[in-house]
Predict the structure.
Amino acid sequence: MAKKNISYKEAIAEIEIIVNKIENDEADVDELAGNVKRVTELIKICKEKLFKAEKEVKEIIDKID
């Protein structure tokens, strides 16, 4: 399961590591499904963080107007 307190930067770095392993044929076939699941979890975390940041920035900008 994905760590809830992972930072956006850490999530992106982990995604890059997994993708590089897959692209360079370094990923074991037996681990492929698990790797894909982990990347999916990390992408979800990143999306949530991006949407939250976007909302917060919009709220700050709205207060200025």
Q: What stands out?
A: The chain has a mean pLDDT of 91. The chain has one domain: 8-64. Helices lie at 8-23, 32-64.
